[in-house]
Amino acid sequence: MHRWVFVGASTIASQHMIGAVRGRGDAEVSWVVSGSAERVVSWARAHQIANATTSIDTALADDDASCVYISSTNEKHYPQAMAAITAGKHVLCEKPLGMTLAESLEMVGAADKAGTVFATNHHLRCSGSHRAIREIIRSGEIGSVLSLRIHHAVHLPESLQGWRINDANSGGGVIPDITVHDADVTRFLLDEDPVAVVAQTAQSGMGQGVEDSCMSVWTMPSGAMVMSHESFTHPYAGTGLEVHGTKGSVIAKGVMTQMPVGSVTLISAKGEQDISFSGHSLYEQGVSDFLSAVNNTGSPAASGLDGIKSLAVALAVRQAAESGQRTNVDYGASA
Ligand code: NDP
């Protein structure tokens, strides 16, 4: 039995991750750690979790718990991950890994040194749709990739309009929230790392002191161009991505989401073809891949290095927007 400590009494944990762990049958959530003594008890009761504490050290001292899932606000990921790694636990950490590149490098370096698994919860690369698109690109069916366009402009539900829209110190803003995902999707699909970006951001009705919308264009080593759009303020835009190659295009609609939904169409000289894909849960797949790594039988869907790189791209996008300059992506020691 894989026993987990959940750090963060969060929405993502309630809505997706507790179920993803319990869905397997060989894993259980043993602890929840929260900053609020009152909330942690009611949260544990609501989710039938045996142990609740405000002290991460107390939970980490449980030798029966080998895995830690971190889904607190972004500024807490680094200290909590470092504590978990020091305690010898395997860590699945939410994106963005840290607030800075240095933090994320240190977290991943510490886990490497400790010999523990460290992974990033980039769920989109766990989805059947994204995996099917990747296979099409890898098969050469659309030829050489010329461009990739991601539109990931959503309307943030009222229940999430807290720190994300008004607190830079907690890691608010659409760039740490959604651009990191788009960076990971791009790296996953194209198997290459953005080298430079140009970007602009806006506060378009929701953000208070942080950006709620962002558009950016990325240079890829292959010469492919990437265009990415993220927002919290678009009620009816829908999400999707398009990959255009010399021999064909893939058009995916409604696939930048937490659910296994949407459609994928391949267009080429042969005509239009609907592509079928697996409808498995994205988060169950992420937990499953993580536990394969813990069991030494596989790799996490998104590694610590993947989390470092998605953060590096997001930080370059923010810097480019602030400076108005084309900005090279700094991957630090992970390059
Ligand atoms: P929430 O705002 O729901 O939770 C974050 C923290 O806020 C919690 O850990 C909790 O702190 C506090 N909190 C939550 N609800 C309340 C409340 N009602 N009253 C008081 N405090 C509250 O965040 P999300 O679940 O949306 O995001 C958490 C992390 O997960 C972020 O890093 C985010 O980027 C990531 N995320 C990843 C997704 C993915 O698909 N990979 C999707 C969504 C989020 P405490 O624990 O101290 O009680």
List the bound ligands: NADPH dihydro-nicotinamide-adenine-dinucleotide phosphate
**Shape designation:** globular
Largest sheet: 9 strands, mixed
| Total separate domains | 2
| Class by alpha and beta content | alpha/beta
Helix content: 25-40%
| CATH third-tier fold name of the largest domain | Dihydrodipicolinate Reductase, domain 2
Cα-based radius of gyration, to the nearest Å: 19 Å
Individual helix count: 10
Q: Kindly report the spatial arrangement of strands forming the biggest sheet.
A: 14-13-12-11-7-10-9-8-15
N- to C-terminal distance: 37 Å
CATH superfamily (homologous) name of the largest domain: Dihydrodipicolinate Reductase, domain 2
String of helices and strands? EHEHEHEHEHEHEHHEEEEEEEHHE
Strand content: 25-35%
Average pLDDT across residues? 97
Q: Stretches where pLDDT falls below 50 for ≥5 residues?
A: none
- CATH class of the largest domain reads Alpha Beta
> What's the total number of strands?
15
The appropriate CATH architecture of the largest domain is 2-Layer Sandwich
Give a description of the structure.
The chain is of the alpha/beta class and 335 residues long. The chain folds into two domains: 2-122 and 284-302, Rossmann fold (3-Layer(aba) Sandwich), CATH 3.40.50.720; 124-279 and 312-334, Dihydrodipicolinate Reductase, domain 2 (2-Layer Sandwich), CATH 3.30.360. Helices cover 36% and strands 25% of the residues. It contains ten helices and 15 strands. Strands 14-13-12-11-7-10-9-8-15 form a nine-stranded mixed β-sheet. The two termini are 37 Å apart. The mean pLDDT is 97. The site of NADPH dihydro-nicotinamide-adenine-dinucleotide phosphate has 21 residues, from helix 1.
